[in-house]
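so my prof wants the structure for this chain in the tokens format not the other one, which i didnt know existed until like an hour ago. anyway here's the sequence
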Amino acid sequence: MTPLGSPPSSHGTLSNMDSSTLSILLSLLFTTLLSFAAGLLFWSDLSHRRRFPPGPLPLPIIGNLHMLGDLPHHGLRRLSAQYGPIMSLRLGLIPTVVVSSPEAAKSFLGTHDAVFASRPRFVEAELDFYSTKGMVFTEYGPYWRSVRNLCTTHLLSAARVRSFEGVRREEVASLVASLKESAAAREAVDLTAQVMRAMEDVACRMILGRSTDGEHDLKGIIQESARVAGTFNLADYVPFLRPLDLQGSTRRFKAVRRSVDKLLEKIIDDHVQEAARYDGKHQQDFIAILLSMMNQPIDPREEQYIIDRTNIKAIILDMIAGSFETSSTSID
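here's what i got, hopefully its the right format
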């Protein structure tokens, strides 16, 4: 209670003023920092644009992502009509050059192919999904060339492909017999699914030594891997959002990775346990060939790269995914 005649206490009023002033100062500081960051990005982008092909002016943070629309290929076509066959975009914070003419594509993929041979490093490729041990996401260099040489020499040579002629004949004969039975019974047949299944069985017998079956749901796991890896992930374009995993992409991909690794480990263990049945006369599948090269240099000319289980799993996964995807694309 304030004594009569004394001036009113200003303690509470000063506290409120201090709090309001602090809030205003913090707001001004945040606005200043944000403006400074936006200006820095703008001037940095201008300096980069002097060295890049022409393209639309990007916005802070999101770049030109908003210009792609629901159908990115249509958006890119519209932009290329305005800025030319070689244009620059910024997808989020990632500088990107878009090529949209046959002549320019030939220059990039033919004349200067070694410069552009490596794939971009997306979040999923960095989750230790054998990304540095196979061919698909491995950076172009000595290791990539060693793995390619191993595959072309030991797995995909003309002699090796001819050695699987019996497998192909058996699977085609099985397909024809199945179609005859359906025709005799006047049953409707999904020819696309039947042919794809036959091609997948051929690939699995060549790579794994067995047809697709319920025990090893390779197709389902590969399709789920492709679906998760192909889902738009904002962190690929705004890298500082990666630790937050806002879309749950990292969590889903890690779950798929564990499933794939468990399945490949089981298949390799089965081959190791059954190694006694492989002799000089037996048809060796890709895993058996790679296991026979364990702890040896991938390429005699690059002795620092030694084949281990991780190399085998990475190469086998690339082979399976490639054969399944190629089959489905060809049939469609």
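also thought this was worth mentioning. The two ends are 87 Å apart (CA to CA).
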